Amino acid sequence: MPKTSIAAAAAALLLAAVAHAQTGPLSIDIPAQPLDKALGALARQSGARIVFSTGLTESKAAPGVHGSLTVQQALQQLLAGSGLSARPAADGGYTVAPQDQGGAALEGASLPAVSVAAEAESSADLPQPYAGGQVARGGRLGLLGNVDVMDAPFNITSYTARTIEDQQARNVADLLGRNDPSVRVTGGEGSDTDTLRIRGFDVAMEDSTFNGLPGLLSFYRSKVEFIERIEVLKGPNAMLNGMAPGGGVGGAVNVVSKRAGDQPMTRLTAGYLADSRADLHADIGRRFGVDNAWGVRVNGALRRGESSRDDQKQSHDLGSVALDYRGQQLRASIDYVYQSMRDHASRTTLTVGSATAGWTPRAPSGDTNFTQPWAVVRSGNRTLVGRVEYDITPDLTVHAALGRSKGWFDGKGSGNIALTSVSGDIRGAAGGSAFHLDTTSGEIGITGRFTTGPIRHQWSAALSALERDMAYGFSSSAGAVVSNIYAPVHVPEPAGIQPAVARLSSRSRLPSFGIADTLSFAQDRVRLTLGVRRQTVRTDSFDTSTGAVSSRYDESATSPFVGLVVRPWEGGAVYANVIQGLAQGDTAPDTAVNAGEVFPPYKTKQYELGIKHEWNGFGGSASVFQIAKPSGLLDATTLRYEASGEQRHRGIELNVFGELARGLRLLGGATWIDARMTQAASASLVGKRPVGVPRFTANLSGEWDVPGLPGFTLTGGLTHTGSSYVDAANATLIPGWTRTDLGARWTTRVADRAITFRASLENAFNKRYWSVGTWNALLLGMPRTLALSATVDF
User: Which of 209, 438, 588, 617 has the largest count of CB atoms under 10 Å?
Assistant: First the structure.
């Protein structure tokens, strides 16, 4: 869909929304849950203002309330047996207060000021955290909106800003690699790019969504200072989010930006990272206007200095502004994010080739840098996103969102560094490179609720589109660069390195339409979600020399989804899903008898079955899954190119999160994956493990509030990655590794200001290890690193 069409459709949808006063009975659908959450759900569904004190509702539960009811009738059912009642307020809302000694409501009585106003919520409102605050009770599932963890037919985890701050995370990938056993990172702190691997399949950072819209984050890496939540959905998700622009199928990451809270906030964080890097982050939030309807949140961050790897220097800047308006029926927001990163001597990816096949290189010390000090990369992005929602009725909401992002990745260095001997010799070619992305992403949609007999429906439909121009360029080699990974040699910068010029290489358009319905019955103990998305992929490829179109791709696919959640016992759920992922199909090569044949989008299929349970603020889940990803192959006998290749992953996931006991929090889990090439171009590759996919991975982080020392917490974390192959033939096996992180924090008051001191020793025992990336790549793990920070609230 053209960019102008997205904007026009969004405007037309908003103009069609007409205010609708709802004074009679409403369709109310509120499951049993904590009382404060139930009152918030009623406020959202009715549009009524409901004011209550959190002290009154604490530890109280509400029954499920369903049917055609007035707001007052629904309140009576929710508050039954709680010792509370609701009385009408002068503004047309309701105030919740204790009953008098005889059990009657305090009609007309004067009540003290209360602390919470449960205004009508929107899809942007965030699920509350579990006890301990490290992860949230739910997350965004694309077309389905925000869904509670226990009601989601998927394995999802939503990491909070508190976890980002307390772990002193620097990037999105950094946080996920430390905490999620199903996610591994290739690149990371010692490199200038990040690629996620979820359930064993690569997911590029460019495939992440920003407040639900795809393709708008930084190309290779995203900072975290502007982020409120990092939500991870494991497995293919084409029906929920549409096809990812990079074709990733292992999972989805959604980044949620910070919004101003009701309480004014001015927060300053100063940090230090060994060897000599200084960080500074300011976070300011304010709300103003009637009922605090308008909000602004500003974040700014600077990072300067040397990392714990030799010769690496970083100069990073971030600025973000988030504006929002929240009314009874209308909500709107605008986000602007600017990220700029300049990294010196950071291209440390090592390629293993035929010259060293079968030899496992010993990992040198993590502070070793085998790239050149004169190498530099400049990367970043500018993103602007707007979103608006309008409640036509309490049961019908329309929304529109539109975003634009420009990203860049330019630099010079020794290029791809290849391992050329079993003595650790390496060789590169001095030159320049440039990659640019220009992306427009938008969506218009509608959500609603209705009841048919005993079945309650929550449905949604959305039309989305993404358009992306990708440009790249490389400059000619200015000479070879020869060194050794165990004894790096610094060579002078070769003369004649020319800046690379990025020229348009492809233009992709990804329009799609999706519709879904969640049917709830048996007193909300059974939830069945059905959905389908029609996805179109249009790509023009260009000759970077002449600018002429060299090939065109225009194909479509239909992707269905079935998800089931059953709540057979209190606090527990069993779930299952069948879903697909989509990636652009191939075009048969010139060597095939069907040369030029264009294949429809490849469909990656997942089957998953899982169980979840909650115990008083602590939760856990276990799941089994199978994912089969197709690929194109040239038959050696018939010379026909067909979509007959397949990579299959079967796995088991275990996750834990929350507060196990008072003052003791755990977060992490384990994943086992049996990954195999079940169909390959060569019979010798059938049955081999895919590159970079270990059999076993595990993460576990813990926090312990030390008794007798108020505000003092000890922290620690373990990250284990099993052995994996660096080549398709499984000739070179890279050993597994375990990294240990230790730390502490102390929250106190200084000069009547709240202040938190944090200290962590990452890779505390200085483990030497390789991470395995795609394309036969090795990346050296970072050495022991000290991180310090202090956060002050003004």
Answer: 209
Q: Are residues 213 and 294 in the same domain?
A: no
Instruction: State residue 24's pLDDT score.
Output: 58
Domain that holds residue 684: 265-793
Instruction: Let me know if residue 133 belongs to a domain.
Output: no
Residues 157, 108 within the same domain? no
Q: Which amino acid is at 276?
A: S
Residue closest to 626 by CA, chosen among 582, 579, 669, 583: 579
CA distance 302 to 511: 37
- Distance between CA 255 and CA 273 in Å, rounded? 25
Report the alpha-carbon distance of residue 27 to residue 605 in Å, rounded: 37
Residues 251 and 399 in one domain: no
Averages of pLDDT over runs of 10 residues in the chain (794 residues) are 44 36 61 78 77 74 79 89 83 78 39 39 68 91 94 96 95 95 89 92 93 91 96 96 93 96 94 94 96 96 95 96 95 97 90 89 94 94 97 95 96 91 95 95 97 95 97 93 95 92 96 98 94 97 93 96 96 96 90 89 97 91 97 86 93 95 94 96 91 97 94 96 95 96 94 93 97 89 96 94
Q: Are 270 and 218 in contact (CB under 8 A)?
A: no
- From 257, 274, 297, the end of a domain falls on 257
Residues 291 and 429 in one domain: yes
Pair 238, 580: CB distance under 8 Å: yes
157 beta partners: 232
Asked if residue 194 and residue 277 are part of one domain, the reply reads no
Q: How many domains does the chain have?
A: 3
Any domain includes 132: no
Dist CA 477 CA 480 (whole Å): 8
Please say whether the beta carbons of 371 and 345 come within 8 A. Answer: yes
Instruction: Show the tokens assigned to 782.
Output: 């970072």
Same domain, 685 and 662: yes
Query: Is there a single domain that holds both residue 79 and residue 201?
Result: no
Q: Which pLDDT does position 121 carry in this prediction?
A: 39
Identify whether the C-beta of residue 234 lies closer than 8 Å to the C-beta of residue 182. Answer: yes
**CATH classification of the domain holding 378:** 2.40.170.20
Backbone angles phi, psi at 43, to 5 degrees: -60, -40
Q: How far apart are CA 286 and CA 321, in angstroms?
A: 12
Q: Does 125 map to a domain?
A: no
In a domain, 75, yes or no: yes
Helix locations, 440-596, DSSP H: none
CA distance 296 to 294: 7
Cα–Cα distance for residue pair 287/290, rounded to 1 Å? 10
71-79 vs 35-46: helix axis angle to the nearest 10?
170
735/733 Cα distance (integer angstroms): 6
Q: Do 424 and 366 fall into the same domain?
A: yes
DSSP annotation of 587: B
Q: Which of 637, 613, 638, 612 is closest to 623 using CA atoms?
A: 612
Number of helices (H), then strands (E), in the chain: 7, 49
CA distance 191 to 222: 13
DSSP assignment letter at 43: H
Residue 661: count other Cβ atoms within 10 Å of its Cβ: 11
3-state secondary structure of 640: coil
Length of the chain: 794
In 3D space, the residue among 619, 627, 624, 625 whose CA is nearest the CA of residue 655 turns out to be: 619
**Which helix (H) or strand (E) is 11 found in, with range?**
helix 3-16
* Conformational region of residue 242, where left means phi above 0, alpha means psi within -120 to 50, and beta covers everything else: left
- Chosen domain end from 118, 153, 175: 118
Backbone angles phi, psi at 443, to 5 degrees: -155, 140
CATH number for the domain including 226? 2.170.130.10
Give the pLDDT confidence score for residue 18 in this predicted structure: 29
Q: Position of tokens 């102390």?
A: 746
Residues 531, 514: Cα–Cα separation, whole Å: 7
- The backbone torsions φ and ψ at residue 78, rounded to the nearest 5 degrees and listed phi first, read -65, -35
